[in-house]
Specification:
By secondary structure, the chain is an alpha/beta fold. The protein folds into 2 domains: about 150 residues, Murein tetrapeptidase LD-carboxypeptidase, N-terminal domain (Rossmann fold), CATH 3.40.50; about 140 residues, Glucose Oxidase, domain 1. It has 8 helices and 16 strands. Strands 7-15-14-9-10-11-12-8 form an 8-stranded mixed sheet. The chain has a 6-stranded mixed sheet with strand order 3-2-4-5-6-13, with helices on both faces. This is LD-carboxypeptidase. InterPro entries: Carboxypeptidase_A_C_sf (IPR027461), Class_I_gatase-like (IPR029062), LdcA_N (IPR027478), Peptidase_S66_N (IPR040449), Peptidase_S66C (IPR040921), S66_fam (IPR003507).
């Protein structure tokens, strides 16, 4: 159980990936949002200093340094990504020899998938797959309330819909995953996903059906689905009309020995339901239950 004490602990806001317009103003609003719940937050110098490449929040050295500062800060208990985009895979491998001073709670999704794998697989720390701070500013209060509920120790139970026609027996295992594209890009690296005996959760955005199929075939050819307990397809947003059929066809023809499910409300949609990763989960009666390792006091 990771306890966040609102009196003594801090949230470190990091921008490990892309920049965004009006970043400083949005950062201020994000801090106000956190403060409204009695949460104290900090950020590190040059967080939005930019780079010669226009799509990064800052250059690699600064983004890496800020992540490392958060990992080594004794009073930081939550590391919350400001936004996703692209960039985390560029800095995660420079953190493999770094030992965090204490267990931290990582929050984010999309490109933050690379950090989830660093935390879950390398540091053996649970994380929270949930909205980045910029997403919360543009969404309803509902998403923020859900995150606060989970951080306070609330139940994580999600209704699933079967994709294939297997006998969907009860399964259990560690749940990992995140963004399909980022997950694929980590194959063959020092953080090659280890999925044996696990439940895999995948989502994506702005990808066409044939690219989704290509990624899934690549995962299969890399052995990612060997000995997988179950796979859950969450939201695939801004999709073409063939994605649902593509996923179903893949499940029937390429991984027909693995229970496959669909769930709405996890990913880049209007609602992004928070789900702990790197912890035990089980599927029973078409319901996903995830152990909640967090407590807010």
């Amino acid at each position: 159980m990771i306890v966040f004490n609102k009196t003594t602990d801090f949230i470190a806001i990091i921008a490990p990936a892309s920049k965004c317009d009006e970043a400083e103003e949005k950062l201020s609003k994000a801090q106000e949002l956190l403060s409204s719940q009695g949460l104290k937050s900090i950020f590190f110098p040059d967080i939005f200093s930019g780079d010669i490449l226009p799509f990064f929040a800052a250059n690699k050295d600064i983004r890496l340094k800020n992540l490392q500062q958060a990992l080594l800060h004794p009073d930081v208990k939550i590391i919350w990504a400001f936004r996703g985009g692209y960039g985390c895979s560029q800095i995660i491998f420079d953190c493999l020899d770094l030992l965090p001073v204490s267990t931290k709670i990582l929050i984010g999704y999309s490109d933050i998938t690379a950090l989830h794998l660093l935390f879950n697989q390398h540091y053996k720390m649970p994380t929270l797959h949930a909205s980045v701070l910029t997403s919360l500013l543009s969404k309803q209060q509902h998403d923020f309330d859900l995150i606060m509920k989970v951080l306070a120790g609330g139940e994580i139970k999600i209704k699933l819909e079967p994709v294939n026609i297997l006998d969907h027996h009860d399964v259990s295992g560690e749940i990992i995953g995140g963004n399909l594209t980022v997950f694929c890009n980590l194959l063959g690296t020092k953080l090659h996903p280890m999925t044996n005996g696990k439940i895999l959760l995948l989502e994506d955005v702005n990808e066409s059906a044939y690219r989704i199929h290509r990624y899934l075939v690549h995962l299969k050819n890399a052995g990612i689905f060997d000995n997988l307990k179950a796979i859950i397809f969450a939201d695939f947003i801004h999709k073409d009309q063939d994605i649902k059929q593509t996923i179903q066809h893949f499940c029937f023809n390429e991984i027909n020995n693995i229970p496959a499910y669909h769930v709405e409300g996890i990913g880049h949609g209007i609602v992004n339901y928070p789900v702990a990763l790197g912890v035990l989960a089980w599927i029973k009666d078409q319901q996903l239950t995830v152990v909640n390792p967090f407590k807010l006091v």
